[in-house]
DUF1541 domain-containing protein (Mesobacillus subterraneus), 206 residues
Amino acid sequence: MKTKKLALFVLSVITALVLAACSDTGSENENESADHENSSHENSQKDSQENTENNEGDHGGMNHSDSGEVPEGLKEAENPAFEVGREVMVNSDHMQGMNGAIGTVVGAYDTTVYAVSYTPTTGGEKVSNHKWVIHEELENAGDQPYKPGDEVVLTAEHMEGMNEATATIDTAERSTVYMIDFTPTSGGEVVKNHKWVTEEELSAAE
């Protein structure tokens, strides 16, 4: 009889230990699951924030100044193909919603126009083949135009981080350039005093 009671006692102890172990394992699994969910949520929030910052950065890079001021010494074109006040169609894609947009000429000037590559002074990725910067928007610009490959310092403020940035001339040509107002084909407000588009990038509005 004593042996039977001892056996029952030992069995009870073993059962209690097994149940306690299972309970601990369940708690650990629940904690691990909770930690995993918290980690996934935090990573999701971080990815969302990074994507938002990247999109804002891209969008900010396209925010052109709407100032109608022009550089000192820039000469108005005597016989531009598109006179001031003329309605035109824009055939360039410098900005989203620009190609195919209807615009109005607000200024026409004869100068040397450049495509340039530069790293913004505000940081960020290099801007390649930016169109356009004119001769009068280069620091200490002389009478002679620059050539592709020349290094210059920009004084233009078309975009954030452009002024005082060091740039490389990609292309250079003598041309009439235009400042225009236009309504983006993608919707939104009228873009005022966009600088610059060339004669080849405009056509008569239908």
Notes: The chain has one helix and eight strands.
